[in-house]
Design a protein that fits this description.
This protein is an alpha/beta fold. It has one domain: Rossmann fold, CATH 3.40.50. The protein contains 8 helices and 7 strands. Strands 3-2-1-4-5 form a 5-stranded parallel beta sheet, sandwiched between helices. Strands 6-7 form a two-stranded antiparallel sheet. The structure holds zinc ion (ZN).
């Protein structure tokens, strides 16, 4: 296995796209993985291909490093979830304060499948956009959960995977800044125009921060982060 080869969990949203750019700067070979679990915002999955294509066009080195794309169907995850992510119900908080967009253990499941794929593909770095700073209350975005998962995967697969989470300690404004630092305006423009974050799956009008309904929690987070970032520039 090469320590210079990575698998990026690419949902098609802002965070995972920024992680893909981060990985393309660092690793010799970068493959991508998306999950189809019946999410309401399935448009995300369509945007993955667009993001990959646009990134490859940004820099010759990125085109060279960008490897295969994988999509895994996880319909079972949708079947065991009773949430606003997979059903046509309003997004609200439950009694624990968790938004009902939460699919229990989703990131743990994603990471287990990612590691199984990475093992088969000879990729030792697994890169994800998990973030503890504005994690919307999802407990499996927390650093301790990721670190514990890394230990479990390495023991359970007798491997030496490193789970990389470049966004773990930064907020959305800093995520925009990270994209700017990595790829300048050209990369920021691709993220604004072609990534998809809106939970409701609306492309709708193009705002300064991208497409989306502008009202759901994911849009609010993205829009507020963009506003904070641009006001600090
Ligand atoms: Zn939205």
């Amino acid at each position: 296995m090469s320590g210079r080869a990575a698998l990026v969990l690419l949902s098609g949203g802002q965070d995972s796209a920024t992680c893909l750019a981060w990985a393309l700067e660092r690793f010799d070979r970068v493959e991508t993985l998306g999950f189809d679990y019946g999410q309401r915002h399935a448009i995300e999955l369509k945007q993955r291909a667009v993001v990959r294509e646009k990134f490859a066009a940004l820099r010759p080195a990125w085109r060279e490093r960008l490897g295969e794309d994988h999509t895994l169907g996880l319909a079972a995850l949708g079947a065991i979830s009773d949430t606003a992510m997979t059903r046509e119900i309003a997004i609200e908080a439950n009694e624990k304060g968790l938004p009902n967009t939460f699919v229990p253990g989703r990131n743990l499941i994603f990471l287990a499948f990612a590691a199984a794929l990475a093992y088969r593909r000879g990729l030792t770095r697994i890169v994800g956009g998990m973030c503890e700073t504005d994690f919307s209350g999802y407990p499996d975005c927390r650093d301790d959960a990721i670190k514990a998962m890394q230990v479990a995967l390495n023991i359970g697969m007798d491997s030496r995977f490193t789970l990389e989470t470049p966004l773990m300690w930064i907020d959305k404004a800093a995520t925009w800044e990270l994209a700017q630092t990595i790829g300048g305006d050209a990369l920021v423009n691709v993220i604004v125009n072609d990534t998809h974050t809106c939970y409701l799956g609306e492309r709708g009008a193009l705002h300064a921060w991208g497409h989306g309904c502008g009202q759901c929690p994911a849009c609010r987070l993205r829009a507020d982060g963009f506003a904070k970032w641009t006001s600090n520039r």
